[in-house]
Amino acid sequence: MTNANNNYSEITASVSKQLVTLRNDIPDVMKGFGDLARAATRDGALSKKTKELIALTLGVAAHCDACIGFHVQALVKLGTTKAELEEALGMAIYMGGGPSAMYAANALAAYNEFTAVQ
């Protein structure tokens, strides 16, 4: 569900807490996931920033607020500009229609939140 009042710092902190529990309860699965994430996001033929933009658009298409929070946070740390973010969100809207437009608005809100904190 899209919500203009989402606080992405709170969302990512809350999910991170629960991920600690999962890492303790199912360590092999979570280690595998972490290894996969590191392998998939490292610089290669595509830059880490490009890969994070792709991940963000997939999170938008999947209507995943936590995904939006984590990937926008990473993109801000990587120096992504608002224009770069918006172009990627344009692709998410193109491919996902109206529902993706609603979550693209959430992603823009997350970007504004995380850039204000820097």
Supply the key terms.
AhpD-like; 81% helix
Strand content bin? under 5%
Number of helices: 5
- The CATH architecture comes to Up-down Bundle
Mass-distribution shape = globular
Mean pLDDT: 94
For CATH, the homologous superfamily is named as AhpD-like
Stretches where pLDDT falls below 50 for ≥5 residues?
none
Radius of gyration: 14 Å
The H-and-E topology, N to C, reads as HHHHH
Secondary structure tally: strands: 0
Q: What is the CATH topology classification name?
A: AhpD-like
**Estimated structural class:** mainly alpha
Helix content: over 70%
Q: Which CATH class?
A: Mainly Alpha
Please outline the major beta sheet: none
Q: Into how many domains do the coordinates divide?
A: 1
Distance between the termini: 27 Å
